Automatic annotation (TrEMBL):
Organism expressing this protein natively: Candidatus Tenderia electrophaga
Taxonomy, superkingdom: Bacteria
Lineage summary: Bacteria, Pseudomonadati, Pseudomonadota, Gammaproteobacteria, Candidatus Tenderiales
Signal peptide: 1-33
Keyword Signal: yes
Keywords, ordered alphabetically: Signal
InterPro entries to which the protein is assigned, alphabetical: CHP02001
Name of the featured protein: Porin domain-containing protein
């Protein structure tokens, strides 16, 4: 099945990260306390190189960020795994963390809880941490419990880069790598045959949608392999998001 972030590896606040499946978990460090939100639509919902919805997904969240660096938030999305019988549901991510900057360096630690409606044996906490320098960030997310989409001790590693381009375009690139535990409560370790592997590479381009306040984006995901050494297909994802 799968799996966000606290933030770095869950579902970020911007369209590019949401499309790329957890590209940037670090929470925004603001000059003052604020509440912000986001809502968007993507043509497909992929998370860390795996499908969470084979069709259109509506996603959104809300965050509170304090000038001390503390933040709390919620993010959600509808799910459709396209299996027989059909498995649909809703993902709810609740997280708390701390992020700060020291010059060009940034760091973040967070705890996220995945809670699902309509999907059995999938709820779990996850610990995340990241460091960054300028436009580059490196992070990890550690799965704390056995679930139907992962084993306790699975670690998702992310190397991300983002930059502004001319004419208000934005670009991001994310490399996602997994280290796997081969034993777990479900399906004898989910059939794990690999100890680690490259899961995906995401290349994303975004641009404001006129004067609407929304952003449109396109992501090309280069698929790697999963924990059973099965190839992940390349795919293109389109999205529109609005922050408020």
């Amino acid at each position: 099945m799968k799996k966000s972030t606290a933030k770095l590896f869950s579902k970020p606040l911007v369209a590019i990260a949401a499309l790329s499946g957890g590209a940037a978990m670090t929470a925004p460090v603001t000059a003052q306390a604020e509440i912000s939100g986001n809502i968007g639509v993507v043509s497909e919902y992929l998370f860390r190189g795996g499908y969470e919805n084979n069709g259109t997904a509506v996603q959104g969240g809300i965050d509170y960020s304090h000038d001390s660096g503390l933040y709390v938030g919620y993010w959600g999305s509808n799910l459709d795994y396209g299996t027989a019988p059909a498995t649909t549901g809703f993902e709810n991510d609740v997280y708390v963390g701390y992020g700060a900057m020291a010059g060009d360096f940034s760091y973040d630690v967070s705890l996220l809880y995945f809670y699902y409606t309509g999907v059995d044996d999938a709820d779990t906490p996850e610990f995340g941490a990241s460091i960054g320098y300028g436009p580059v960030s490196l992070g990890m997310a550690y799965l704390i419990d056995d679930v139907t989409w992962g084993n306790e001790g699975d670690i998702y590693w992310s190397l991300a880069y983002e930059t502004a381009l001319p004419s208000d375009f934005g670009f991001s690139a994310t490399l996602g790598y997994y280290t796997y535990e081969d034993q777990g409560e479900f399906e004898s370790g989910l059939g794990t045959t690999e100890s680690s592997g490259l899961k995906h590479v995401d290349l994303s381009l975004s641009h404001p949608l006129g004067a609407t306040g929304a952003d449109m984006s396109i992501t090309y995901m280069i698929g790697g392999t999963d924990r059973t050494d099965t190839d992940v297909e390349d795919t293109v994802i389109l999205g529109v998001s609005f922050g408020f």
